[in-house]
Amino acid sequence: MNCKWVSRENRNLKCNRHADSSGYCLFHKQNKSKKEIALFEQYIKRNRISDFTGFYFEDKFEIKKLVNHKYEKLKFCEAVFKEYADFTNYKFKSSVDFTNAKFKSYVNFKNSKFLSNCIFKRTIFNEKYINEEIFQKSNFEGQKLIVEKCINFPRLDGVIFSPCTKFILKDTNYNMKDCICGRTNYRIARIQAKNLEDNENMGYYYYNERNYASNLLKCRKYNGYKDYLASNFFDFLSKNLIGYGQKPIRLLLISFTLISVFAFIYILIGIKSVEYGLIKINLFSGDYSIYDCITFYLEAWYFSMITFSTVGYGDIIACGLLCKIIVCIEVFLGITIHATWTSVLFSRMIK
Fold first, then answer.
1. Are 80 and 104 in contact (CB under 8 A)?
2. Packing angle between helix 249-269 and helix 321-350, nearest 10 degrees?
3. What is the per-residue pLDDT across 205-260, written as a single tens digit (0 to 9) for each?
4. CB-CB contact of 95 with 114 (8 Å)
5. Tens of pLDDT along 101-118?
6. Can you tell me the distance from the alpha carbon of 114 to that of 117, in angstroms, rounded to the nearest whole number?
7. Are 141 and 162 in contact (CB under 8 A)?
8. For residue 91, what are the β-bridge partners?
9. Quick check: helix, strand or coil at residue 91?
10. End-to-end CA distance of the chain
């Protein structure tokens, strides 16, 4: 009977090894006895295995003891490390892949050297050790380090990158209490992207770095509560209006929304047009056709647009004190958003 292990990612990938009464082979079986663990390790060393896809490591894993032979690529895809996984002081001479691997306990990569690509995709780490510096003095000299959609990915403090190594950090999120870890990792990714002039990803890293940093704002870091509120207010605007300068499309959407909202206010308050005279709709009385409503709103939208852009042709004017106050507010918002848009656009053009 063949082992009934099947890959979660590729249902066509199955194990063809002989299974015991549990239905699994020695490599994919859980709850191994001490004798089975010893046989498991001996078989790996004797057969120079380098593909550990789906393997279940019951006991402490020490890569130096099990993998001291030549290999083309190390694959730990969907492997499960129940106890401590020790990769310290190891030289990965070829690429290594930890896609869908799961570290149930502590894992250590300190002082390791990666001479080729290293991949962590959907890799799960133990939340208990998320702030441990498990990559301290690890040297990445390969072409790429990929960290994508990982859970509880630890801090990368102390990691050493080759000038040519591209660090890709994507869709790896952190909880509120782990914001320091998120800020640190995205900052490291941004710095490496800057060194490589990877402008495509630099903005993404900067946004996430600022996003996690904003969650760390505390009152005790400021001289008073007013400074704290001011800092949070401007951080809120920067994040939601322009995405810390990385999402200028938001400004266009916000501008369109503001112009549309003010247009609706104008037809309720009333404005004077050279062509139509008084443009005003009373919601509680009056009989207006659909054509009148559309025409009035388009005229009001046009007036709102030229007010927001501070052009002011004079063919439509504000009517009454309240309308003039509303116009002043829209002009102020328009000037502010124009200045912000210019700053963001100029910054991105420089990059």
1. yes
2. 170
3. 988 888 888 776 654 455 555 555 555 666 666 666 667 667 777 888 889 999 99
4. no
5. 999 999 999 999 999 999
6. 7
7. yes
8. 113
9. strand
10. 60
